[in-house]
Amino acid sequence: MRFYSIIIPIYNRPDEIKELLESLTQQSFDNFEIIVVEDGSTIKCEEICQSFSSKLNLRYFYKENSGQGFSRNYGFKKAEGDYYIVFDSDCIIPSDYFETVETYLNVNPLDAFGGPDAAMDSFTIVQKAISYSMTSFFTTGGIRGGKKQLEKFRPRSFNMGISKEVFEKTDGYNITRMGEDIEFSIRIEKAGFKTGLIPDAKVYHKRRTKLSQFYKQLFFFGRGRINIFRFYKSELKAVHLLPLFFVLGLFFWFLTPLWSRQLFEWGGTAFAVYYILIGADAFRKTRNPFVAGLSILTSFIQLFAYGMGFINESFNYVKQPKPTGLK
């Protein structure tokens, strides 16, 4: 039976970690330790962590702010497990998560793995719509753990596991933010380790609660994709360009009345059909007309914000093409 070390970096989000820790007390498999790394927060979660000391094998550490990637490395160095599991502080873990992982690894050994994310019934309508937009094949191509994928799955740090050997050989994250988990996953592959998706090892990911926060997050993700390009030129694939084409197509569509009314109408029809499909798919999955309707808006934000971030960092790349932020 494997021993797991759960690494949770946190920055000024004590309420989130309370829900996460509470979910970890409900696990059917409990052969794990928890390492909370407070990344220079001004609003600390130490007291909340102490309140779980009788229920969980938990260690709390406070350090100067260095960003999430390097804070995870800090936790890896403190870990004693056979596998290190990284969760974001805004995740809630189903009670069978570790039992699912342990069972899967017994049959299909992996050096590094990830799982999908989903929305709980208790999430707000906004959170459910955002969750749909971040996991739908229509918006992300399924690359974040969907059953259908346009690109090879790579573990993301909201739900990611690595063996102790992986950390010892790779030395963890090379950059602390802006695509740090993708860069790490690519480097794990290049080191010869076996990686994969555990389809049933899902987490409930609360993500952002406001649409403005969601826009900022996706804008940052778009910038991160270009940052990955700085390290690995071959890793910019067609699926990553879809939000860029969406933004350029949208701008082009707004200008088409200047020379072709018919082309404007065709473009409008194409956009309308696309979002009708999104709305229908969201309703099929959630059975909630309000979530389905809002998913149309969040999907637009998801594509537009990512595309704008992609464009923004592309201009920055012209100024600074070499990788930055290395350890």
UniProtKB/TrEMBL annotation:
Pfam families registered for this protein in UniProt: Glycos_transf_2
Keywords: Membrane, Transferase, Transmembrane, Transmembrane helix
Domain Glycosyltransferase 2-like positions: 5-153
Residues annotated as transmembrane: 238-260, 266-283, 290-311
A single MF term (Gene Ontology): transferase activity
Identification of the protein by name: Glycosyl transferase family 2
UniProt organism field: Marivirga sericea
Upper lineage: Bacteria, Pseudomonadati, Bacteroidota, Cytophagia, Cytophagales
